Amino acid sequence: MKGQSITSSTIVIQALGIKPDGAIATEDGVCAMCGLHISIGDLCAPAEYSQSFTDELSLAVRGNPYFCGYCPSLTTSDAIRATGFGVFSKSGVKPFRKWQDIADALQDPPEPPFVMTYATANNQHMGWRAPVNESRDVFMVRVGLRDVLVRRHVLRRAVDACELLGNLPGVKPKVAKAARRTLPNPYTFISSDLKDAGHAKLNPGLFSDAARQAWTTAHTDALELLRALSLGETWALRFVLTPGAGGDK
Length: 249
Ligand SMILES: [Zn+2]
What we know:
The protein is of the alpha+beta class. The chain is built from seven helices and twelve strands. Helix 3 (99-107) packs across helix 7 (231-240) and helix 4 packs across helix 6 (217-227).
């Protein structure tokens, strides 16, 4: 059995500057947690799980007898805290918790390979089971227990589509521009942690008479674009549409 040559664990550990740990492998194997290939001479450890470990479904190769030299270091409480929110790559760790930082990273990710994590609960294991990205244009973010997709060129166009539809009569908020934190958009609510069932629900004002009277083919195209967004792209709009936000929730 051949494992991966690179996994989120290797990227995250290197970005954090933590040294891999373990004993010298005397046979080839595959890490049970992240799926990294372990060659003779690499560091490894026997696969042992603490009583509180409940993430069996995320294991790359359940039942395998070894961990790589990276994964065990990501399950300490310090490491779990350090990996909850971040953009991990060869250039280190970039913050990914304040909305502005998230918006910046989503629009300008680091050179691949990189890993993006956004925890939605305390003590969530993020580092060893996040997707590894090989492209700055189409990438995945680990949001809580999900991996969500972001296509950068689609996200850019979605911001314009939001502005066009969000300024329609019947949709446009009555609050003065200066008092609004979020750019115009046609959603009633966008969730930052994807826990709310009302996430990315379209404003019913879009289908009002007032909106219909101002409707053009550009609006039809914009609505079509928004309806084709991935969950990751509607999630990303939460941050990209709120450029002045400094809060972390
Ligand atoms: Zn591993």
